[in-house]
Design goal:
Layout lengths: L1 E2 L4 H19 L12 H8 L1 H16 L6 E2 L2 H19 L1 H7 L2 H12 L12 H16 L1 H7 L7 H6 L9 H25 L4 H12 L7 H9 L1 H13 L4 H8 L3 H5 L2 H24 L1 H4 L3 H16 L16 H13 L12 H16 L12 E4 L2 E4 L2 H28 L4 H12 L15 H16 L1 H13 L3 H10 L1
Parallel strand pairs: 1-2
Antiparallel strand pairs: 3-4
């Protein structure tokens, strides 16, 4: 194999990504067949799309070699990983920038879309721009690296695949990427057809399905109306959120009839206990403190609690609540922040700390506490199951989980304090907003974001970016790029995690 020490292969990958970005910009223009838009809105996609596409073709033609296999160092893998996400946000922000006439607003909308966070500064998006945002969210949920590797038929992507935090379905990263891409595509098509079956217009069903499958929650007023008033739409949305809550390995084993492997998984049972506990607290709090004021029956409260819990765990940011979170009881408000911060399953588009790390930290802590009561010659190493495979909770794994949790919580408080100091919002609103940014959730607290200061918007953007890419890999990546330490030493903690 040829070892690439220059940036040639990186530029080749970047060229392919630019081609894909240009296609994404042109896709919403198909909506013009049945809808009319102003010339400015059309040009916001019609001009940058072809330009970026041509630039990508030139870069790919010059630097990318399809039939040649390369070895890429982790240093270059990390560089490509970061540069693709950063450049993607800047490029995909161009249409939002043109329409909003504000660079900060355009960048905020792009970061929100790619990170699958349901935040928006633009009160009413034009139809094709809204479709464009949903498409960006869809590809952001799959993972930009996964989308890129889907179209690159060589072994170069294995390190990139690992850096973005996905489990390989096969030994080949490109093949695994295609399986993930295909599974999301199938879920999107099924979702669209089911929404249409329950009376949702086709173009609304497309955006609603894109938003639900991507766990972005970016639904407009019409989509929200169908969600609030149509029980069939609500059930389809709930099922799609639950399906995309698990990574593709669970789908792969489930549909191949390997039910024992799927259910012999500690995360599944931990999630069940966690759901019963927190949903019970939420239900009791709502029924005692808000049931009468919201004019809801106990059955309706159960429906709301189940839907909101699934929405929070999957980082979807969808809501069927009849009132903003700010007007709900304080216990429900606090529980929401905790659930949002914990997040969902590892190796999915869901944000947050992740259930696996919480489970490892709890079991490791219990084992450490019990060690003092055991005989000195008693040897025991805690473990858990993941898809039927036994995994030991070594001291390194335990420390890694604890480190990530402390880092995540520390960043949450740091961002919350920044929002409280530099923006006229009370602490609990700042905590709610930053927890949702950091977990890629985007639930609406009740205070409009377009009234926030520019500094606060940049803080939220950094939270969304770090939350989507996972904090630890980004810190390790930046540290590795600028300190020049050996690969094995710099990536050790990430690989262990």
């Amino acid at each position: 194999m040829q070892v690439i020490k220059s940036k040639r292969i990186l530029l080749g990958y970047l060229g392919i990504f630019l081609v894909l970005a240009g296609i994404v910009m042109l896709m919403p223009l198909l909506l013009l067949i049945s809808h009319h838009e102003t010339l400015e809105v059309i040009l916001s996609l019609a001009i940058p799309g072809p330009v970026i596409l041509v630039i990508g073709v030139v870069f790919a033609a010059i630097f990318y070699r399809k039939n040649q296999y390369f070895h890429i160092t982790k240093r270059n893998s990390v560089f490509l990983f970061l540069i693709i996400w950063i450049i993607s946000v800047i490029i995909l922000a161009i249409p939002f920038w043109i329409v909003s006439k504000s660079f900060t607003t355009g960048l905020f909308e792009a970061v929100s879309a790619v990170s699958t966070t349901n935040f928006s500064l633009m009160v009413s998006l034009p139809e094709i721009i809204y479709l464009y945002k949903c498409i960006c969210s869809f590809f952001g949920a799959i993972g930009l690296i996964i989308v890129l590797l889907t179209f690159i038929p060589n072994r170069l992507g294995a390190k990139l695949f690992q850096i973005e935090g996905h489990s390989e379905v096969s030994f080949n990263a490109s093949r695994s990427s295609r399986v993930i891409f295909l599974s999301y595509g199938i879920f999107f098509i099924i979702g669209t057809l089911l929404y249409c079956a329950f009376g949702v217009p086709f173009h609304v069903a497309i955006t609603l399905s894109l938003s639900t499958v991507s766990n972005s929650g970016s639904i407009d007023e019409r989509g929200n109306m169908y969600l609030q008033e149509n029980l069939g739409v609500e059930i389809v949305t709930l099922v799609l959120m639950l399906v995309t809550m698990f990574n593709v390995l669970y789908h792969f084993n489930f549909f191949r009839g390997r039910f024992k492997k799927v259910f012999k998984d500690s995360q599944i049972w931990f999630l069940l206990i966690y759901a019963i506990l927190f949903m019970g607290i939420m239900l009791v709090d709502l029924s005692l403190n808000a049931g009468s004021s919201l004019h809801l029956s106990f059955e309706e409260l159960i429906n709301i609690v189940i839907f909101q819990f699934v929405s929070m765990v999957t980082s979807s940011g969808l809501s069927i609540l009849p009132a903003p979170y700010l007007l709900l009881p304080s216990t429900f408000f606090t529980i929401t922040i905790i659930i949002v911060l914990i997040g969902g399953q590892m190796e999915t588009g869901a944000g947050g700390i992740k259930l696996e790390r919480i489970f490892v930290a709890i079991k490791g802590f219990i084992n450490s506490s019990l060690e003092m009561f055991r005989p000195h010659n008693y040897l025991y190493e805690p473990y858990y199951y993941k898809l039927g495979e036994k995994k030991n909770i070594t001291r390194q794994v335990f420390i890694s989980a604890i480190s990530h949790i402390l880092l995540f919580v520390g960043l949450f408080f740091f961002g919350t304090i920044l929002l409280s100091i530099f923006n006229p919002m009370e602490f609990k609103v700042a905590a709610f907003n930053f927890s949702n940014a950091l977990s890629s959730n985007g639930l609406y607290v009740g205070a409009p974001l377009n009234e926030a200061s520019t500094f606060s918007l940049w803080v939220l953007m950094m939270g969304m970016f770090l939350g989507r890419l996972e904090i630890l890999p980004v810190i390790l990546a930046v540290g590795y790029l600028f300190t020049g330490q050996k690969e094995q030493r710099m990536m050790k903690v990430y690989e262990r995690d």
